[in-house]
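S.,

Sequence below, as promised.
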Amino acid sequence: MRRPSVASSAGAGRLLSLDVARGVALLGMVIFHLCYDLALAGLIPRDVPTREGWRLFAKLVAGSFLFLSGVSLWLAHGRGIRWPVFVRRIGVLALAAAAISATTYAMAPDRFVYFGILHAIAVSNLLALAFLRLPALLTLLVAGGVWALPRLVALPALDHPALHWIGLSTWHRPSMDFEPLFPWAAATLAGLACTRLATAAGLWPRLREREKPAANLLHPLGWPGRHSLAIYLIHQPVLVAVTQAIARLT
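The prediction came back faster than expected:
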């Protein structure tokens, strides 16, 4: 029997639920950045974003983005890499990541973003290509190893700042946003593996059927998720401008 393609497994068109999930992750990111900007403006105590609850919230949001990038990678390329689409997406992510690095370096060179969430998504997706043809359970096992390794290993040989992005050094330079390859690539690999298992179980056609009655609601709710990169790049300058303006008025 011919194996089903990703298109037939996922159903025609976009998965509205995936767009909504991206939108929820995006909302979480905006909430955390608003907290950070309020603290930066002196409108709330400066230590609030570094408190344990907020730090955990930020990690969950970052992990959600990386997991969903693994989901999208399998749905788009699981039965064959569409190289023009993949290269274009990675290129856009790389340019956006470089813009974030340059902008934050100009603002705060001692804490600039040298390997943030966009960098992590781009590099993790490149790494995950090697797992598209490997068994899902093996990919999950590797994901567990990627997550655990930084807790077990710290290599002085990787202490040069140019290598901090790997995540296995004994220290790393401060950054506003830091998601190194180890352990964060684990989330992308886990998303890839879980989506592959869901495809084998025939989840996507059933999900498409469940979406149909609520399509008129899910489609507008998924709008932020369909424009997540643009919103990511725009929202923080807006939040900074608004919070700083409020701080000056008060």
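The two ends are 69 Å apart (CA to CA).

Coffee later?
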